[in-house]
Each structure stands twice: as structure tokens, then as C-alpha cells.
TrEMBL record:
Stated role: Part of the Sec protein translocase complex. Interacts with the SecYEG preprotein conducting channel. SecDF uses the proton motive force (PMF) to complete protein translocation after the ATP-dependent function of SecA.
InterPro entries: SecD, SecD/SecF_arch_bac, SecD/SecF_bac, SecD/SecF_CS, SecD_1st, SecD_SecF_C, SecD_SecF_C_bact, SecDF_P1_head
Major subcellular location class: membrane
Protein name, UniProt field: Multifunctional fusion protein
Subunit structure and binding partners: Forms a complex with SecD. Part of the essential Sec protein translocation apparatus which comprises SecA, SecYEG and auxiliary proteins SecDF. Other proteins may also be involved. Forms a complex with SecF. Part of the essential Sec protein translocation apparatus which comprises SecA, SecYEG and auxiliary proteins SecDF. Other proteins may also be involved.
Domain Protein translocase subunit SecDF P1, residue spans: 184-240
Species of origin: Flavobacterium cellulosilyticum
Subcellular location: Cell membrane
Keywords in alphabetical order: Cell membrane, Membrane, Protein transport, Translocation, Transmembrane, Transmembrane helix, Transport
Domain of life from the UniProt record: Bacteria
One Pfam family of this chain: Sec_GG
Length: 991
């Protein structure tokens, strides 16, 4: 081997750099473990501990030292499936951005185009492009985007804006830029909020030009609180309010009008004698106040006063709001009250007559106007901080700029004169509505008080300081993983990786003897390099990523196997050990096959990296890095030891007593049974396609949208009973199945999946808790059931949500990933082999393998004891299968090409020559497949329930891929070559 000294130098240097990079991970892990011990389960205390030592020197190498913050930045980061925490994808409402840019245009074509874009947006199509497409179809040239009543308005004119003369194509470029600026603004606002939230190593990034923003909060535990923090637009407004005595007559009239249409629908409930019912009955007990007679008043659970019109149950807010928005009810308002806005307050807790706590929401009436504009906007706020009010309760104080201070003084002066109240409204929720008792307030200071706890005021101040979002931010995909589940994933992944390493190493020693030891050393160095690169790149290690590492161990020895098998052939042909090794490492020996096989693997891994997301991207990352490091260590590191052994005159035969006769006299007629293999594969393909068409798949929420919960119970529960309980409240949408142990269920529902607000998520969580708490002993509160915390054993340990729009994108990406991988690899094979028949044979084998795996999943998903969902993990498995199948086929085809092109290799007819070439690859094929199957079996058994279906798909794919390389790809290659070419080859070989 030339340049051996240089290779040794780089290998040692690379090893030292890898150890250096990994040292930061070890130091960081130790410090984090110390923080956990110090905090004793208190996550807030743990974060404060780590923050307090952020600038302290914690790692001293003698020549330099590092603070904890620096160490933390250089460690291998764990994904949420290992660390625990919250991962969300936020969709900035581009529709709202476009409305704002158009100054809320009333143009019918514009508004119809917005609606059409929402309804017809295709997978992976941006909303802006969908809008442009809809606008062109609706306007048909009659209206331009640059019309004065659409985008050529006062706010969009000027330098870099839109003028009346612009064509639609020119206006589109400006609009796209303005939308991007709005998304950038939202990104900045969210980053400010997250930076102040208090989690270690938060991650936030824009996802292309989709208007989507990924937010990862490792270690975060308070689910509802975080979702509110992320989704709040921070639209702060100050409104004057009506008092109950001003609006009471309307409510009385509304109640009377509702009796005519709603009297038979109203729930029976005892009427509350409050200020409104007093107006109705003049303080007397009459039949009018009997339960069931008052559609509106019967829903009041406590009287109001001042600006509060009454207290209602949260479950009644939608009904009451619907009443008050009805045209026949709104007409009952006096002309002065025509623009009144009825708004709900912040949820609070009351006590009923028996002292039991009940949820309640206050109803307010704001003094609206024709333009629906608040008396004062929140853009004047320059600072906000959490504090305490005069009664010692948590509150938020705000400071305004000069313009705001002047407006505030005028507004409070008017409220003082009129003895009215000012509602402080954030995101259409009234947080407080104080009166003004001491005259106009100067200086621009104000305060929000109410029923807050300290964490709420911290979050509220944080949101106000960061500023408002330019449009609504909806959570279209989320995943919440408890820390205990993450630790289980680490344990499962580590155990399976160690066991896989042990078995692969033992097999190499048993089969190849001393050469197997050298391959194992190369494998160990490979793992060191792999982790070193992951650390230096700041990559995120996920559970599928660990699966990728385990898979890498199976493929890492493949190059060694190819080289060793070639060396054995050269030794059997009479060459010396030194000559055999040189021949096996040459381009005409094993190198060409190794390069072709690994290029196909890299191409499919690259497709997976481009189209994958989250954990799947982590899998692709480790797979791609592992392929590169495996090639280096297999070709160069093992070679260094082999050359050293030869120089010491050590006996190196690449066999052991156990393996010396394996496949030496193997002569199987692969082409002779092609009619049977064609028939078998055709039958399986037909059955698979029939099942796919009629039986379908168990499509995961990744592809169809929905919510998934992994819930643990104290003891086994009856699946059908849980399904019946949840189906009632989730409107029939509840799928329940045992997930792993019989005390753990996987619950899937589409209930309110299209509603992205934090209120919908919280409602689903509360419905889950209320209907499942009977299966737990007393003491499991809502917070303990929903939120994550260290040592959590029961309740929701994992929750995920995928909205229908992103599900469509994921499905589209999956489709193109599979098709694209096959086309790219097929094109490479045409270039590499220079004959289309090779590419056709490989593609035929791959299509066969994909259909086979899909058929297995379609046929058996209802009966298997583990999940067989078609989701992103499954697509990753399919792409891995494509890569492996191509890899295996290329190895066979390389040998077929060699035998067909070398007249000295074989004699006989065409089929005999091809059979001899395929038989010569059997030792490599069986060895590689066996090591792969062994490591996948270990991962299947010990890797954990969450990736069992993913591993099973790869297991089936490896077995089928091995079969198709031998019995489908090769026969197709031979059958598509002309009979004339067969005769030419036979003549040359037998001359």
C-alpha cells in the first residue's frame, strides 16, 4: 500500500481529534448528572443550576480551558426521543400576512382567492404560490394584484413596494419578499421568547420558504404553558368597556328572543339570581326564572358586576358566543351599541355552594367601532416585567413610549370622567378591566393584574417584551416526549448497539480468524471516527440515529468481507499471500465493487437526508457518516494491520477451521430455476398489490394527520373499555391499541386536529384526563398526567400531533423520495455499467422488494403484536432497503460483468458463465446479509417499541433484497440481453 505512513499519520490525527471532540460530551454529561442530583427532580432548579455555571471554567486541558456554555456547544446533542422535551412546527399564517399587506382588502376576487388557496393548496406547495394560482384563475386578467384596492395601497407603496403599473409577475416578487420579511420577523420574535423561557440548548430554525418554523425545547416539561407561549400573537389592545347596567337590557331582550328558538335545547340548570336575572324579574321570584326557561341566563354560574356581565362555564362559551353573534340577536342592540364586541376573559376558578372548585370565564362587552379598531394598540409598549400588585398578587407592569404615554393619559382621563373601565386585551382575551379612580394616569405606566401565578406573569412579560407576531402562529406538528421515555430509549439503544457490536465481532473472528480481528479493530476505529464526526458537526443523536449506528456496524464489515473473499479466491488460484492481498485491494479486485455498492448506498442516504425530518434526518446523518468512515477504516486501517502481519511472516489465510469449506464447492443453477422464481415473485406481487388496493395500510398520523398519545397505566386496562370512554368525547374518533407492555396504550384521534390553537390542545388533554383518571389511584392530578417530569411512571409519556396540511407534505415528500431514489441509483448504474440492462435488472429487483415489503405491511398490520404503521420511519426503512438491495445487486452485477468480460474466468454456455459468477459471490452475500440480519434482529428485540415496526421493515427488506439480487435482478439482466450477444460471449469464452 502506497503512502502508508501518510495514512497512519492521518488516522492517528483523526483519532486524537475524535477523542478531543468526544471529551466535551463526557464532561457535559457529568455536569448535567450533577445538576440532576442537586435539583432532585425540580426541573426549574436544575436549569438555574446549569445557568449559574454557564460562564464558569469546567474543563481544563492544561493548554486551554472551557466554560460550561462552551462545553455544551461542542457536545453531541441528544434528540428529543432520547432527551425528552417538546418539538413543534409552527405555521405562520401567510393568509393573515397577505390580508395585512392588502390592508384587509374587501375585493371579492382577492378574498375568494384566499379561500381557494386554503382549500386547494397542494402538498409541498407554499400558500403564496397557491394564492397566486387561485388569483390568476379567478381574475382572468380583470383585476391586477397591483390594484389600488388590493396591494397597491398606501402601506405597500414607496421604494421597494408596489405601484399601479406593475404586472402580476412583478407584484408577485414584491409580495413574496414582504411575506418572507414577515416570517423573518416572526422568527425573531419567537427566538426572543424562547431565549427567555429557561431551557438549555433550545433550537429554532426556519424550514425553507414554507412559512414554517421548527422549535425544539429539550428538557421542557410544561406542555400547555409552552404551547401558549409559542402561539400567542401578543396582539395587545386597550378597549373601553360597557358596564352591566348599560348592556343589561340587551341581554334581557336577547334571552327573551332566544326562548323562541332555543327553549327546547337548553340544558336544565338552576337559574342564578344575579343582577341580570333581577332585571328580568324585577327582583321577584317568577316562573320566568325556573330552570330551563332562560337559554342565556341559565348558563350563568355566578353573577357579574361592573364590566363583567356574568361568569360562564368554559364548555358553554361556544354556545353563548354563537347566541351573541347571531344577526337576529345583534339587531336588539341600541344604535349606540351596534358595534359592541363580546369577548371572554382569562379562565379562572370559582367555588360553588358546596365549596367545590369549578372553572369559569368572565364575559365582557367592549365598545367597538365601525373599523373594529381598539382605542389604543400595544405597539407603544417598550418594556414589560413581572411584578406584584398592591395586594401582593402576581402582575405584569408595562412601560409605554412617549406617544403611548400621551394616548394612555387621554384614555384614562376619559375613563375617570365617565366612571368606566379599560379592558386590557391580549390575543382577544380580556386579562383585566380596571377602573380609573384617581384621575388621568401620566408617565405611560400601566399594569395587568388578575388571577395569575408567577410563571404566567413571567411568560406574559416575556411575550410582551419580545413583541407581537405579524400573524397567527399555528402548531401544525408537535411531539412531546417524557424524560423517562427518553432514558428508556437510551438504555434500549445502548444495549442493542453493544450486543450488535459483540455479535458482529464474534462472527468476524469465527469466520475469518486473524483477519477478522483486524476487521474488528477497524470497526472499533470506525465507531470512534463516527462519534467524533457527529460531535464536531454538532449533530443530533436520535433513536433512529442509534439504529443507523447499529446498521453501520453491519455494513462496516461488508467492505472487509468483499476484500477477504477476493483474497481467498486469489490464494486458491495459487498466488502468494502478498500478491493475493494486493490483487484483492486493486480496482479490478474488490475496489470497483466496493465503490459501486457504496455510491448507491450514499445516493439513497442522501435522498433520505433531503426529504427526511427530525429523527429520520438523524438516521440519515449517522448512516451517511457511517458509510464514509466504514470505507476508510475497512480499506486503510484493516490494510495496515494485514500488511504488518505479512511483514512479520505471520500466517494469514482469511479462513478458520470452522469456515474453510464454506461455499468452496457451491454450484447452484440460479438461472435454471428462474421460471419458478419469476412465478413465485409474480404471485407475491399480485397478492401484495391486491391487498394494498383492498386492505390498505395502517397509515400513521404522519400521513393522514391526527393526535397520538402513548399512555401508561398502573396496571393493565381493557382496550375496548378505554376506546368506548374516549369515543364518546372524541366524537367517535378514537383508536386504541396495546403498545408494548399490556399496561401501555397507544391512543390515536383526529378530534379537533384542524384547530391549531393551544385551547384545542388543552381541551383534548383535559378530556383525556377526565375520562382516564378512573383507571388511576387517587393523587394523579391533571398536571402530573399531562406534563413531563423526571421519574414519571404513569400518564402521557409521549404525545404527538400532525396537522392535515403538513401530513400531505410529508406524504408527498415520501412519494418523491422513493421514486427519486430508484431513478437516481438507476441512472448511476447506467453510467457505471454502460448497459441499460444492468440498470433495468437492479430497478426490477428494487421495485419487487418495495412491493413485497408494502404487501407484508398491508397483509399483516391487523394481526401483528407490534405497530406496522406507514409513516416517516417506514419510508426511511424503505429507502434503506432500496440502498441495501442496490448494494447487493451491484456486487453480483460487478462479478457478472467481470466474468462476461474476462475470457479466462469461465467456460461453457452463457447461462453457465453467469451462474459461475453469481456462485462466486455467495460467501460475501450470505455473510453480509447474515451480519445485517443479526444486528437488525437485536435492534428489533431490544431497541424498544417505538422503532420496532421501522426495524421490521428493514429486516424483511434485507431478506427479500438478498433473494431478489440473486433470483430476480440477474435473470432480468440476462433475459434482456439479446440472443446474439449471448452467442458472442459464448464464442469468445470457449475459443
Amino acid at each position: 500500500m502506497q503512502n502508508k505512513g501518510l495514512i497512519k499519520f492521518f488516522a492517528i490525527l483523526f483519532a486524537l481529534v475524535s477523542i478531543y471532540q468526544l471529551s466535551f460530551t463526557f464532561v457535559s454529561s457529568k455536569i448535567k448528572n450533577d445538576a440532576k442530583s442537586f435539583a432532585a427532580g425540580n426541573s426549574e432548579k436544575e436549569v438555574k443550576y446549569l445557568d449559574s455555571i454557564g460562564k464558569e471554567k469546567v474543563f481544563n486541558l492544561g493548554f486551554t480551558s472551557f466554560t460550561f456554555d462552551e462545553v455544551k456547544d461542542k457536545q453531541i446533542n441528544k434528540g428529543l426521543d432520547l432527551e425528552g422535551g417538546i418539538n413543534v412546527i409552527l405555521q405562520i399564517s401567510v393568509k393573515d400576512v397577505l390580508k395585512g399587506l392588502s390592508n384587509n382588502s374587501k375585493n371579492p376576487i382577492f378574498n375568494k382567492s384566499l379561500a381557494d388557496a386554503t382549500a386547494n393548496q397542494k402538498g409541498n406547495q407554499t400558500y403564496v404560490d397557491a394564492f397566486f394560482e387561485a388569483f390568476e384563475a379567478n381574475s382572468k386578467g380583470s383585476v391586477k394584484l397591483a390594484s389600488p384596492d388590493i396591494f397597491a395601497n398606501r402601506t405597500m407603496q414607496g421604494e421597494g413596494g408596489i405601484d399601479f403599473q406593475m404586472t402580476d409577475a412583478q407584484a408577485q416578487k414584491v409580495i413574496k419578499r414582504k411575506v418572507d420579511e414577515s416570517v423573518d420577523s416572526a422568527f425573531g420574535v419567537l427566538r426572543k421568547r424562547i431565549d427567555k423561557f429557561g431551557v438549555t440548548q433550545p433550537n429554532i430554525q426556519k424550514l425553507g420558504e414554507t412559512g414554517r418554523i421548527l422549535v425544539e425545547l429539550p428538557g421542557a416539561k410544561d406542555v400547555d404553558r409552552i404551547k401558549k407561549l409559542l402561539q400567542s400573537t401578543a396582539q395587545l389592545e386597550f378597549w373601553e368597556t360597557y358596564k352591566i347596567d348599560e348592556i343589561g337590557n340587551f341581554l334581557v331582550a336577547a334571552n327573551e328572543a332566544l326562548k323562541k328558538t332555543e327553549i327546547n335545547k337548553v340544558e336544565t340548570k338552576v337559574a342564578v339570581k344575579d343582577s341580570i336575572s333581577a332585571l328580568l324579574t324585577n327582583g321577584k321570584d317568577s316562573s320566568a326564572t325556573k330552570k330551563g326557561n332562560n337559554p342565556l341566563f341559565d348558563k350563568i354560574i355566578q353573577q357579574g358586576g361592573g364590566p363583567v356581565l356574568g361568569m360562564f362555564s368554559p364548555k358553554d362559551t361556544a354556545v353563548v358566543g354563537g347566541y351573541l353573534r347571531r344577526a337576529d340577536i345583534k339587531i336588539l342592540l341600541t344604535p349606540e351599541q351596534h358595534y359592541a364586541r363580546f369577548v371572554w376573559g382569562k379562565p379562572t376558578i370559582l367555588k360553588d355552594a358546596q365549596g367545590k372548585e369549578i372553572d369559569a370565564v368572565e364575559l365582557y362587552a367592549l365598545k367597538g367601532n365601525r373599523d373594529n379598531v381598539a382605542s389604543m394598540g400595544g405597539g407603544v409598549i417598550t418594556d414589560a416585567k413581572d411584578t406584584f400588585d398592591q395586594l401582593g398578587k402576581p402582575a405584569v407592569s408595562m412601560q409605554m413610549n412617549g406617544q403611548g404615554a400621551k394616548q394612555w393619559e387621554e384614555l384614562t382621563g376619559r375613563a375617570y370622567t365617565q366612571k368606566s373601565n379599560i379592558a386590557i386585551v391580549l390575543d382577544n382575551i380580556v386579562y383585566s378591566a380596571p377602573g380609573v379612580t384617581s384621575g388621568p394616569i401620566s408617565g405611560g405606566r400601566s399594569e395587568i393584574s388578575g388571577s395569575f401565578d408567577i410563571s404566567e406573569t413571567k411568560d406574559l412579560a416575556n411575550v410582551l417584551r419580545a413583541g407581537k407576531l405579524p400573524a397567527a402562529a399555528d402548531i401544525i406538528q408537535s411531539e412531546v416526549v417524557g424524560p423517562s421515555l427518553g432514558q428508556e430509549a437510551i438504555d434500549n439503544g445502548t444495549n442493542s448497539a453493544l450486543l450488535g457490536l459483540l455479535i458482529v465481532s464474534l462472527w468476524m473472528m469465527v469466520y475469518y480468524g486473524k483477519a477478522g480481528w483486524y476487521a474488528n479493530v477497524a470497526l472499533a476505529v470506525n465507531l470512534l471516527f463516527l462519534f467524533g464526526i457527529l460531535a464536531s458537526l454538532g449533530a443530533v443523536l436520535t433513536l433512529p440515529g442509534i439504529a443507523g449506528i447499529v446498521l453501520t456496524m453491519g455494513t462496516a464489515v461488508d467492505a472487509n468481507i468483499i476484500i477477504y473473499e477476493r483474497a481467498k479466491e486469489e490464494l486458491r488460484s495459487g498466488k502468494s499471500l502478498d500478491e493475493a492481498v494486493k490483487a484483492s485491494y486493486s480496482w479490478t479486485g474488490a475496489m470497483r465493487s466496493i465503490v459501486d455498492a457504496n455510491v448507491t448506498h450514499i445516493l439513497t442516504g442522501g435522498v433520505l437526508f433531503i426529504f427526511g425530518s427530525g429523527p429520520i434526518k438523524g438516521f440519515a446523518t449517522t448512516l451517511l457518516i457511517g458509510i464514509v468512515t466504514s470505507l476508510f477504516t475497512s480499506i486503510f486501517i484493516a490494510r495496515i494491520f494485514i500488511d504488518w502481519s505479512i511483514s512479520k511472516n505471520n500466517r494469514l489465510s482469511f479462513i478458520t477451521g470452522f469456515s474453510k469449506n464454506f461455499f468452496t464447492n457451491f454450484h447452484f443453477d440460479f438461472l435454471g430455476i428462474k421460471k419458478w422464481t419469476y412465478a413465485f415473485s409474480a404471485i407475491v406481487t399480485v397478492i401484495s398489490i391486491f391487498s394494498i388496493v383492498t386492505n390498505g395500510f395502517d397509515q400513521g398520523v404522519d400521513f393522514v394527520g391526527g393526535r397520538t398519545f402513548q399512555v401508561r397505566f398502573e396496571k393493565p386496562v381493557e382496550v375496548e373499555a378505554v376506546k368506548a370512554d374516549l369515543s364518546k368525547v372524541f366524537e367517535g374518533s378514537a383508536e386504541v391499541k396495546i403498545f408494548g407492555n399490556d399496561n401501555q396504550l397507544k391512543i390515536t384521534t383526529k378530534y379537533k386536529v384542524q384547530e391549531h390553537g393551544s385551547e384545542a390542545d388543552e381541551e383534548v388533554n383535559k378530556l383525556m384526563y377526565e375520562n382516564l383518571k378512573k383507571y388511576y389511584s387517587d393523587g394523579l392530578t391533571y398536571n402530573k398526567f399531562v406534563n413531563a417530569y423526571d421519574g414519571k411512571k404513569y400518564g402521557i409519556v409521549l404525545a404527538s400531533k400532525v396537522g392535515p396540511t403538513i401530513a400531505e407534505d410529508i406524504k408527498t415528500n415520501a412519494y418523491w423520495a422513493v421514486i427519486g431514489a430508484m431513478l437516481i441509483v438507476g441512472l448511476y448504474l447506467v453510467i457505471s455499467f454502460r448497459k441499460w440492462q444492468y440498470s433495468l435488472g437492479a430497478i426490477a429487483a428494487v421495485v419487487h422488494d418495495v412491493i413485497f415489503v408494502l404487501g407484508i405491511y398491508s397483509l399483516f398490520y391487523k394481526v401483528m403484536p407490534f405497530g406496522m404503521e406507514i409513516d416517516q420511519h417506514f419510508i426511511a426503512a424503505i429507502l434503506t432497503v432500496i440502498g441495501y438491495s442496490m448494494n447487493d445487486t451491484v456486487i453480483v452485477f460487478d462479478r457478472v460483468r467481470e466474468f462476461l468480460g474476462d475470457k479466462t474466468k469461465a467456460k461453457g454456455d452463457f447461462n453457465s458463465i453467469v451462474n459461475q459468477s453469481v456462485n462466486s459471490t455467495m460467501s460475501r452475500t450470505i455473510n453480509t446479509s447474515l451480519t445485517m440480519i443479526l444486528v437488525l434482529l437485536i435492534m428489533f428485540i431490544f431497541g424498544g417499541e417505538s422503532i420496532r415496526g421501522f426495524i421490521f421493515a428493514m429486516l424483511i427488506g434485507i431478506v427479500v433484497g438478498t433473494y431478489s439480487s440473486l433470483f430476480i435482478a440477474t435473470p432480468v439482466l440476462c433475459d434482456t440481453m439479446s440472443e446474439e450477444e449471448h452467442k458472442i460471449i459464448e464464442k469468445e469464452h470457449n475459443a
